[in-house]
Amino acid sequence: MRHLAALLAACVLTFLLFWAGARIAQIVSGPERVANDYTVGQTFDLCGYRVDSRYAMAGYELEDWQGDRCRQMSALDHCVLACLERAGTVEIAAACYEDCVRKR
Length: 104
Fold this sequence. Notes:
Elements: H1 2-28, E1 43-46, E2 49-52, H2 68-71, H3 75-86, H4 90-94, H5 96-103
Antiparallel strand pairs: 1-2
């Protein structure tokens, strides 16, 4: 009977430990990330890809992907624009070109 009581106590303590850990994680987690004008830049439609204007700081000439270049895009261009569309930070965007070159 003592073993059963000890097992029950261990289960209750384990539950309380995990419950407290979950509560602490919930308390310290930040607010939901909502895109707004202060956290993201203006987005452009570049050849069908939605690209944030901040990625110009990563060294890309975003105006180059307009007009005739859209009709004659290479696989590398598609890869870079798709990567820029998915990128969440300027640092990630800066690595897009090298990543796409390595994939080819």
